[in-house]
Amino acid sequence: MPLVIAVDGPAAAGKGTLARRLAAALGLPYLDTGLLYRATGRRVLGHGADPRDPAAAEAAARGLTPADLARADLRGPEADMAASAVAAIPVVRTALLDWQRDFGRRHGAVLDGRDIGTVVFPEAPVKLFVTASPEERARRRFLELRARGAAADPAQVLAELQARDEQDSRRAVAPLVPAADAAVLDTTALDAEAAFAAAMAVITERLREVSPLA
């Protein structure tokens, strides 16, 4: 199977930025799997339905189009919570699982999400779990919102992020946890350059372990 690198972690830990840079450096396709769930949640909301409704969420997941992934409203508190809600529904995860696996198996890929190393590609030779303290992640999300011109209260951003963490880590299906063989990368005190260097060091070592003669 072509090289697949799994990058998991909670919101605002820096996994998306890191995964995109790793993909570019390694010449691999990149997939933000969270967009699939965000787009599904948005489709549900757009139909005036509840993202926690399994029937509505499954219909939205199976009806996804490339245009849904390019929507401009896939970020923000409402989209975050809708994505987390639909991601907790087993039939939604089933509907999107084959799509993700096919993407990775075609040419290899760097995929970021919350269950890439535990569910989507448990056989991936390289698994990273990118995290940071809740306070640092909330600070980053606040700055991101402010840069987009969105009104945001730091305390509210932290509360919403912690609620999302709670929902993701406690869901019955594919909870947010590091894979047993994942390298945990705490970016609390790391900038983008340092995080990239640390990740590349892990990747180099893991690939050497699986292909010692390479």
Any overview of this molecule?
The chain is globular. The protein has helices at 15-26, 34-46, 54-62, 66-69, 77-87, 90-107, 116-120, 134-147, 154-170, 192-210; strands at 4-8, 30-32, 109-113, 126-131, 183-186. The protein has a five-stranded parallel beta sheet with strand order 2-3-1-4-5, with helices on both faces. The chain has 214 residues and is α/β, with parallel strands linked by helices. Helix 1 (15-26) packs across helix 10, helix 2 packs across helix 5 and helix 5 runs parallel beside helix 9 (154-170). Helices cover 57% and strands 11% of the residues.
CATH class: Alpha Beta
How many strands, which pairing sense, and closed or not: the largest β-sheet?
A: 5 strands, parallel
Tell me the total number of β-strands. Answer: 5
Proportion of residues in helical segments: 55-70%
Strand content: 5-15%
Structural class: alpha/beta
Protein name: Cytidylate kinase
GO molecular function, one term: CMP kinase activity
EC number: 2.7.4.25
Catalytic activity: CMP + ATP = CDP + ADP; dCMP + ATP = dCDP + ADP
